[in-house]
């Protein structure tokens, strides 16, 4: 299975995410903020990054932009899990997020989205290539902020 980097500052949520993803067969690496997550991504090259939006030192949007700005990480799939976004918010997709899930998110949806992105693997995130599900019609592109499977 995949190595999933979880960037989440709320320890209780991090424990739940780690347990959920571990039970799904993934290896989980946890960091409590965006700066630590970026450093861990550089060191460990995860298959998928699952990030919260609001975190200390660097938020999820900053983390996404930092990852997209590094050639060795640029194609890494990123999922944003947030309770602070609203349906139709375009900022995460513009930053390079592949999927956005709203808290509270059903466990089966979270597992399915992470698995889908792990199966898809590294892919380009620009609109021209349409390699990212966030830019494809009929997937996350039609409802960029959703709690559903891509």
In a nutshell, what does this entry contain?
The chain is α/β, with parallel strands linked by helices. The chain has helices at residues 11-23, 34-44, 60-68, 91-95, 107-120; strands at 3-7, 27-31, 48-52, 78-82, 99-102. It has a single domain, classed as Response regulator (Rossmann fold, 3-Layer(aba) Sandwich), CATH 3.40.50.
Q: Report the helical percentage.
A: 25-40%
The CATH architecture assignment turns out to be 3-Layer(aba) Sandwich
In what order do the strands lie side by side in the largest sheet?
2-1-3-4-5
Shape: globular
Kindly name the structural category.
Answer: alpha/beta
C-alpha Rg (nearest Å): 13 Å
Modified residues (4-aspartylphosphate): 52
Biased composition (Basic and acidic residues): 119-128
Domain Response regulatory: 3-118
Pfam family, one: Response_reg
List the main descriptive attributes of the protein structure presented here.
alpha/beta, Rossmann fold, 5-stranded parallel β-sheet, 5 strands, Sig_transdc_resp-reg_receiver, CheY-like_superfamily, Bact_response_regulator, Response regulator
Describe this structure in words.
- The protein has about 150 residues and is α/β, with parallel strands linked by helices.
- The chain has one domain (about 5-135): 3-Layer(aba) Sandwich (Rossmann fold).
- The chain is about 35% helix and about 15% strand.
- Helix 1 (about 10-25) links the parallel strand 1 and strand 2 (about 25-30).
- The longest helix is centred in the last third of the chain and has 14 residues, at about 105-120.
- The protein is globular, with a radius of gyration of 13 Å.
- It starts with a strand and ends in a 30-residue tail after the last helix.
- The model is unreliable at about 135-150 (pLDDT under 50).
- Pfam families: Response_reg.
- This is Response regulator.
- It comes from Paractinoplanes rhizophilus.
């Amino acid at each position: 299975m995949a190595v999933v980097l979880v960037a989440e500052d709320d320890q209780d949520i991090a424990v739940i995410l780690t347990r959920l993803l571990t039970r799904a067969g993934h290896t989980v690496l946890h960091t409590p903020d965006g700066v630590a997550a970026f450093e861990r991504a550089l060191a460990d090259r995860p298959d998928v990054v699952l990030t919260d939006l609001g975190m200390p030192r660097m938020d999820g949007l900053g983390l996404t932009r930092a990852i997209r700005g590094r050639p060795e990480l640029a194609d890494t799939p990123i999922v944003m899990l947030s309770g602070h976004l609203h349906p139709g918010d375009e900022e995460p997709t513009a930053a390079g997020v592949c999927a956005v899930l709203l808290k509270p998110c059903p466990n089966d949806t979270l597992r399915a989205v992470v698995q889908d992105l792990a199966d898809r693997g590294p892919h380009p995130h620009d609109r021209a290539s349409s390699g990212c599900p966030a830019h494809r019609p009929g997937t996350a592109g039609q409802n960029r902020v959703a709690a559903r499977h891509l």
